[in-house]
Amino acid sequence: MLERLSILPIYAQRVTLLEERLAHDDDRTDLLRRQVSLAEEGERRATGALEAAMRRIREAEESASFERDLRWVWFGVGVVMTVALELLALYGLGAIRP
Fold first, then answer.
1. What span, in angstroms and rounded, lies between the C-alpha atoms of 73 and 58?
2. What would the DSSP string read from start to end of 71-98?
3. Percent of the chain with pLDDT over 90
């Protein structure tokens, strides 16, 4: 019986150590959960940045396409104006000649 009583403090110390280990494990679990939430937040931000970059690329491509189309419009306007001026000049020359 005396031997069993002498072992009790060792068991109590062991229980205390196990409780401390559980507390450390709980802290580690909390830190890992925080790390996971930060990683998820980083993923959301990266996804948002990627989507914004893709949107800017599409807008730049649309703008370049619009500018290309606009160049053709101005080219057409130039051709029409040149033909109109030539016709006007020919009409003017015809009106001057008897």
1. 22
2. HHHHHHHHHHHHHHHHHHHHHHHHHH--
3. 60
pLDDT confidence tier of residue 92, bands split at 50, 70 and 90:
confident
Rounded to 5 degrees, what angle do the CA atoms 14, 19, 20 make?
A: 95
Coil, strand or helix: which one is 1?
coil
CA distances from 36 to 44, 47, 67 (A): 12, 16, 46
Instruction: Give tens-digit pLDDT for 37-70.
Output: 999 999 999 999 999 999 999 998 888 888 888 8
Cα distance between residue 91 and residue 27, in whole Å: 95
CA dist., res. 80 & res. 82, Å (int): 5
Instruction: Read off the pTM.
Output: 0.52
